[in-house]
Structure formats: C-alpha cells, structure tokens
Amino acid sequence: MLPDMLRLLLLSASLLALACSSKPRDPEAEVRAAVAALEKAVEERDIGRIEDLLADGYKDDKRYDKGKLVSTLQFIFLRKQSIHVLVNISEIELDGDDRAHVKLVAAAAGMPIASASMLAKLSSADVFDMQFDMVRDGSDWLVTSAKWKRASGDLVRMLGG
Q1: Which of 111, 110, 112, 105 is closest to 155 using CA atoms?
Q2: Angstrom distances, CA of residue 129 to CA of 11, 23, 31, 143, 145
Q3: What is the DSSP letter of 110?
Q4: What is the DSSP letter of 98?
Q5: What residue spans define the domains of the chain?
Q6: Cα–Cα dist 158/139, whole Å
Q7: Secondary structure class of 43 (helix, strand, coil)
Q8: Dmax over Cα atoms in the chain, in whole Å?
Q9: How confident is the model at residue 41 (pLDDT cuts 50, 70, 90)?
C-alpha cells in the first residue's frame, strides 16, 4: 500500500494534468464546426445526423418545424443523386457561451462547387442568404431557427471567400 502522502501527491498531479490538458471552450470555433457538420451531413444525405443538429423545437420563417424540414430533405435526397454544398459564414454573433446567431451564404448543386467563379458557371445551383439561431445543448450546438432567401449577386460573390 502506498503511503497516504504519496497517494495524495499522485492524485494532485493527475488532477493538475487533467486541468492543464483540457482545452478552454471556444464557442465561435464550436459553432463553425457545427455548421461544417451540417454541411457535411447534407452532402452525405445523412438524415439522422441532420436531425441531431436540429433542436426539437426548430422553427423557420417558411413555417417548417423539424419534422417538416426533415421530410422535405428526405424528398430532395430521393430526387437528387448527389448534393454538393459550399458555405461561407459571414458573421457569428455570440450571446454568452451558449447562444449564437450565424449569418452565411450557402450554395447547393448536383456537382462539386470549388469556388464562387465555378458557381457562376452552374445554371442549376441554388444560392441562399441564410441566418441560423443556435444554442448549445451539452457539448453540441443545435439550430433552433432559420431564415433564408435566394441570394443576390453580391452575396453569391461572397462564396469566393
């Protein structure tokens, strides 16, 4: 058996190592990662992951709730063999460490979109000006509401970076 003092030193060293190794939270980076995860889930047509990234009380300006949005996406995924998305986040406003408002431009097409210049050549691409409200739920960021409209030419150019 280890002497009590040695146990106490080992416990203290372990706790100190744990405290030093844990990264401080960076809400903006976490929100960016959640948006990237949503982008990837749409491209992979992963309905389960999309559902996981939407809050149960999700509502948007088109009067879609979570169920209606998921059903609509399922229909789109059945009709489209591939979906490629290009996203440019223009602004993230944090409200403390657990709420965020995100402004972005997103384009979706049936073929890869490497840049805004390539997007201009795709007649079938859809480009949207979007806003998300997000909330931290444990370690995840969930979309609680969204607004979107077709993007103007200036916003389409923002996708170039």
Answers
A1: 105
A2: 52, 33, 18, 16, 14
A3: S
A4: T
A5: 26-158
A6: 30
A7: helix
A8: 75
A9: very high
- pTM of the full structure: 0.79
> In angstroms, rounded to a whole number, what is the distance separating the alpha carbons of residues 129 and 148?
6
Please tell me the distance from the alpha carbon of residue 107 to that of residue 80, in angstroms, as a whole number: 15
Q: Are 33 and 120 in contact (CB under 8 A)?
A: no
Read off the pLDDT of residues 19-33 as tens digits, 9 standing for 90 and up. 444 555 799 999 999
Which residue, 95, 105, 106, is CA-closest to 136? 95
Q: CATH number for the 26-158 domain, one of 3.10.450.50, 3.40.30.10, 3.40.50.300, 3.40.50.720? A: 3.10.450.50
The length of the chain is: 161
User: What is d(CA 54, CA 56) in angstroms, rounded to the nearest whole number?
Assistant: 6
